[in-house]
Amino acid sequence: MDKLLYLLPVLACPVGMGLMMWFMMRPKHGAQSAPTADQQELLRLRKEIDALRTDRAEVQDHPA
C-alpha cells in the first residue's frame, strides 16, 4: 500500500498529459464559424490547380 502512494505522483504526470492532449484534439462542438482566410486561400488554390490540370489535359489531347 505504501508503494502505491509513491506510484500515484509518478503516474499523475503522464496521465494528466494524456488527458490534456485528448481534450485539445477533440473537435469543437458548436456553431460552425466562417472559413478562415487560410482555408479560403487553400480552396482558391485547389480550384486554380484543377483548372490548370484541365487546360493541360486539353492541350495534350489536341496538340497544335
Describe this structure in words.
With 64 residues, the chain is mostly helical. The protein is 77% helix and 0% strand. The chain has two helices and no strands. The protein has helices at 2-25, 37-61. The N and C termini lie far apart (85 Å). The mean pLDDT is 86.
Radius of gyration, CA atoms, in whole angstroms: 26 Å
Tell me the β content: under 5%
Name the helix and strand elements from N-terminus to C-terminus, one letter apiece: HH
Portion in helices: over 70%
Q: Strand pairing plus helix content: what structural class? A: mainly alpha
Mean pLDDT: 86
* Individual helix count: 2
Ends: how far apart? 85 Å
Which stretches are low in confidence, meaning pLDDT under 50 for 5 or more residues running? none
Largest sheet, strands/sense/barrel: none
List how many beta strands DSSP finds.
Answer: 0
Tell me, what's the shape? elongated
In short:
77% of the residues lie in helices and 0% in strands.
Topology (SSEs and partners):
Blueprint: H1 2-25, H2 37-61
Notable features of this structure?
mainly alpha
